[in-house]
Amino acid sequence: MKLVLACTAVVLLLSAVELARPMRRRKNSIAQIYRAANITPVPEQILQVNFGGIKVTPGLEVAPEDAVDLPTIGFDFIPGCYYTFLAYNSNYSISFLSPSIVGLYVNLNGDMLADSSAIATWLGPSPSPGTGINRYILNVYKQSGLIDTTDEQLLSYQIDRLRFPIDDFVATYGLSGPVAGTFFLSQYPVFASEDCL
Predict the structure, then answer these.
(1) What separation, in Å, do the N-terminal and C-terminal C-alpha atoms of the chain show?
(2) Are 184 and 56 in contact (CB under 8 A)?
(3) Beta carbons within 10 angstroms of residue 138's beta carbon
């Protein structure tokens, strides 16, 4: 009987160790993915992003025409807390104008972008011809409270999307994180090679 109990205890212990392992791997894999892509800061979790039927995984190439509409997002959020969603092109075609805002939404109470305040409405990726692959980073930050959406500086981001000061923005509005994030790649579409013309 003692042997059976001991064997059961060992199996349960090994199961607990195995169940804990993927969580550790997942945290390490996020850091590894971001380190390999040379992106900082590293989010706490991967942001789930969908453009219609396209599920974005970190580093996936998405055609500009497939990401025209505002994506749906998902992440582990704390009910009652507010969040900011920021999407930007980290390597805009003119490097000194990077990063450029693709979309900025504040006061998310959960993960529904449609129920938030649009500061800079979603434009979708629009890489310029000849710029190669552009990297689009999508992050969610936790807010310390509601953000005043009548703030003139905040409202100016609908027009002033270039050279967006991410670190200053995070500090000014008391954001922490990113609590969730992902990135995708996009390039100017090449519809036909010169051989076909």
Answers:
(1) 81
(2) yes
(3) 22
